[in-house]
Amino acid sequence: MKFLVFLGSLRDSTPPRPARLGVRVTEAILECMTTCYAQHETELIDVKDFPPDAIFKPHFAYPENKAPSQLRALAEKIKHADGYIMVSPEYNHTMSPALANLLNHFGSSLYSYKPSAIVTYSAGQWGGMRAAVGMRTFLSELGCLPVSAMIHVPRAQETLNEDGSLKSEENKDAWFNYFGRTLNQLAWWAQATNEYREKVDPHSLIKSFKNSPLERNAP
Questions:
Q1: Could you give the 3-state DSSP secondary structure of residue 86?
Q2: Which end of the chain has fewer surrounding CB within 10 Å, N or C?
Q3: b vs e for 142-180, b when ≥16 Cβ sit within 10 Å of the residue's Cβ?
Q4: β-strand 151-153 against 41-46: which pairing, if any?
Q5: What is the pLDDT of residues 185-201, one digit of tens each?
Q6: How confident is the model at residue 67 (pLDDT cuts 50, 70, 90)?
Q7: Checking DSSP bridges between strand 83-88 and strand 41-46, what pairing results, if any?
Q8: Is the CA virtual torsion 144, 145, 149, 152 positive or negative?
Q9: pLDDT of residue 22
Q10: Average pLDDT over residues 134-153
Q11: Residue (of 121, 207, 109) closest to 164 by Cα position
């Protein structure tokens, strides 16, 4: 399977400290994937590589093959991935605006009929779980339904070093087992949807609207 890991943290200023806490969380998830799920391919997509002021229109709003090369390349990666891992901080009890902005540059048909996993974190005690609640609805509307288990990392700055390693190696197995509840579900659903897409093209059964959202309205 091929998974894309979206790092949704864009803020890189201090205070607060440490800046871009999400880098640590993402590195920990990537290490877990490499160590425990080596049979799968994982690629990091960092929102910082797609500054919001440099992208003006959604990928699907451009004439065919006229979108910026950055958007075209990411669209192909999203299209060919088997699942997604979304890593987000919690801002005002909701997901990262930068992550939502990047994901919204692509039509739901690219994400559809594949699973996703939600990973949130915070510097406080809740681990971003309130943002995760809203992400369920958001990702469902994109078509990449989130698996039931989620990952929350509270006080991430106290748990993880800057490189994503655990500050207490004694807790590594416990944390990787915790991550595994979600990642195992993701891998299972990715395999299942991949195999069934090979048998039945879902887009031939339920047409993706191409011209106007009105195409999905009731008569």
A1: strand
A2: C
A3: bbbbbbebbbbbbebbebbeeebebeeeeeeeebbebbb
A4: unpaired
A5: 999 999 999 999 999 99
A6: confident
A7: unpaired
A8: positive
A9: 94
A10: 97
A11: 121
Query: Which pLDDT belongs to residue 175?
Result: 96
- How does pLDDT run across 29-58, given as a tens digit for each residue? 999 999 999 999 999 999 999 877 666 688
Cα separation of 157 and 104, whole Å?
29
- Structural domains of the chain, ranges and CATH numbers in brackets: 2-216 (3.40.50.360)
Element (H, E) at 45: strand 41-46
Which helix H or strand E contains 88, and what residues bound it?
strand 83-88
Task: Please state the separation of Cα 61 from the chain's center in Å.
Answer: 22
Cα distance between residue 57 and residue 47, in whole Å: 16
Using a cut of 0.90, tell me whether the model's pTM lies above it: yes
